[in-house]
Known about the structure:
By secondary structure, the chain is mainly α. It is built from 4 helices and 2 strands. The protein is about 70% helix and about 5% strand. Strand 1 (about 1-5) and strand 2 (about 10) form a beta hairpin. Helix 2 (about 30-55) packs antiparallel against helix 4 (about 70-85).
Amino acid sequence: MAENESGTVMLPPAKTQEAFVHIGFAKARLTRGRAFVLAILAGAFVALGASFMLMVRSDASLALFDLAHPGWTGILSGTVSRARGRR
């Protein structure tokens, strides 16, 4: 197991596969009620991130910024939509 400069643990491929198998077994052992609640929460977080991304994308104060540099608003909205999945 190795750590990079940001402190993220990097596993070799065999250990990565083993870790994902254990995660899958842990998810399979969840009760139906807990799995349902986690599914509802996951959907709520996705919807919250999407609404925040749309708010950034349609913000009128970014219109001048968008005219000067049209790609930056897309990059910003893409970053906002991707950031919701990171811990």
